[in-house]
Amino acid sequence: GDNLDYGSATSGPEGDNQTWSLEDIYITIGIGRAQWLYWLILGTITYFEAAEMVVISTILPILRCEWDLDVPWETAIGACALLFSAIGAAIASILSDKYGRKRIL
After folding, report:
1. For the chain, which ranges sit under pLDDT 50?
2. Which of 40, 65, 69, 84 is the 20 to 30 Å CA partner of 20?
3. Residue-wise pLDDT tens digits, 92-102
4. Distance between CA atoms of 80 and 1, rounded to whole angstroms?
5. Alpha-carbon span 31 to 42, nearest angstrom
6. Terminus-to-terminus CA distance in the chain, angstroms?
7. Residue 17 CB partners (closer than 8 Å, separation 6+)
């Protein structure tokens, strides 16, 4: 059998001390169900992060007109949206470390 060290990032495909590339990893272990699920979850998270930016950039001009906002207030609203998103991500990571990622998702 192959004597590949999957636990070491510096042990290359031929057993020498080369760095693994993503292509080398996929060639060695293949693309299975776990990898497709990983890419699906990652793509979904990326989509929602981008959607949040679209909503913020769409809502801010409307709020500027409706509430007669100055630039500092408009900036503060955008910054708060991003700040609370970061706080939510930090809380979710703490909960997922404590209770498990599958239960939190």
Report:
1. 1
2. 40
3. 888 888 887 76
4. 55
5. 15
6. 38
7. 10, 11
